[in-house]
Design goal:
Length: 251
């Protein structure tokens, strides 16, 4: 379960209440940031899965095209097979293999905004099966994705900070120092002497934001936030995220 609160003290009080009032043994950790990944270019890929181990073997052959989609589109699977090159009953297995791979791409995160087009392929009347085509699809995606310039995406939230106008400039500096993009500020309706500062900020910079805000506003600032979009993350910050992911996978 994810427990949201306005600062560490707020959360600690809630945790203590679960332990003392409800007698629940609770362990906690910070929620992981839901990073995603996508690609910057497309590629074509041929994949053949063939295995012979006595009796019926396994055979599937596919050709796919992988292309990037506009941000926020999600992912799509297109069936362009004509002429019965792959029997219709095997197409869902190819899609299943593709979608299964997209749960964790080459950078270790769920893949979004990608189109996969099944162009054609081959089958064997005896050795082909759903499992063979599913395996061929996963294998094809595994070979294709590293060629497509995969990039990391981080979630960006829209933040609105309520603050006395005497501290507005300080709050703006805090937001900028946390890689935030100031969108502007206006007087808070019905609150004389207060402003609302609007900004877009990476979710990874919001976790302890309330602590710093209150330290410069005599403890009175508050904020709300909601998911807005995904944005490419590069450089040392991206490397650090992927290194942490690799360390967690190795544990």
């Amino acid at each position: 379960m994810v427990l949201w609160g306005q600062g560490d003290i707020h959360l600690q009080i809630a945790m203590d209440r679960l332990r003392t009032k409800h007698n629940l043994a609770v362990q906690s950790r910070r929620p992981q940031i839901p990073y995603k990944e996508t690609i910057k270019r497309g590629t074509a890929q041929h994949s053949r899965f063939k295995r012979q181990s006595g009796g019926h073997g396994q055979f599937a052959d596919i050709q796919i095209e992988v292309k990037p989609l506009p941000r926020g589109t999600g992912h799509t699977f297109i069936d362009s097979v004509v002429g019965g090159a792959i029997p219709r009953n095997y197409i869902p297995a190819v899609e299943e293999g593709v979608m299964e791979y997209l749960k964790q791409g080459p950078l270790g995160f769920p893949v979004v905004d990608v189109s996969v087009n099944l162009i054609t392929g081959q089958f064997h009347a005896v050795d082909s099966s759903d499992q063979a085509f599913k395996t061929a699809a996963r294998q094809g995606m595994q070979e294709a994705m590293p060629k497509c310039e995969p990039v990391l995406l981080e979630p960006i939230h829209h933040v609105e900070i309520s603050v006395p106008n005497a501290f507005t400039s300080r709050v703006q500096r805090i937001v900028s120092g946390r890689r935030g993009q100031i969108l502007g500020y206006d007087a808070k309706p019905g609150w004389d002497g207060w402003d609302v500062v609007a900004a877009n900020m990476p979710l990874s910079e919001i976790a302890d934001l309330i602590v710093e805000l209150r330290s410069v506003t005599l403890g009175v600032a508050t904020f709300t936030d909601r998911f807005d979009h995904l944005q490419e993350l590069t450089g040392r910050l991206a490397e650090k995220v992927m290194q942490t992911k690799a360390e967690q996978a190795a544990q």
